[in-house]
Amino acid sequence: MVTGGAGFIGSHLVDALMSRGEYVYVFDNLSTGSLENVKHWLGNRKFNFIKGNLLSPTDLEKLKIEHYSIIFHLAANPEVRLGSNVTL
Fold first, then answer.
1. pTM
2. CA distance linking residue 46 with residue 73, whole number of Å
3. Ramachandran region of residue 77, left (φ > 0), alpha (ψ -120 to 50) or beta?
4. Strands, E, within the chain: which ranges?
5. For residue range 6-46, what is the model confidence (pLDDT) as tens digits?
6. What CA–CA distances, in Å, run from 74 to 11, 27, 30, 43?
7. 57, 78, 3, 10: CA torsion to nearest 10
8. Rg, C-alpha atoms of the chain
């Protein structure tokens, strides 16, 4: 599982994992990432894209955490100044 897998760094990790023949799940809300970064893997039986936000309990229900042996957490707000103004 790669959270933020449609972002710049995450998509490069996805490419490396897919090139190794791994099964890869990407969880991304596409707020700063782009589906364009991973579109070449769409349709591959070893690749799954799940659109969702880690801050949403409803979106988190889409995940089956027990299915993943490793989770690379790369989802982040790239704009630190804006992130400090967010209230939960």
1. 0.85
2. 19
3. beta
4. 2-3, 24-28, 47-51, 72-73
5. 999 999 999 999 999 999 999 999 999 999 999 999 999 99
6. 10, 10, 13, 23
7. 170
8. 13
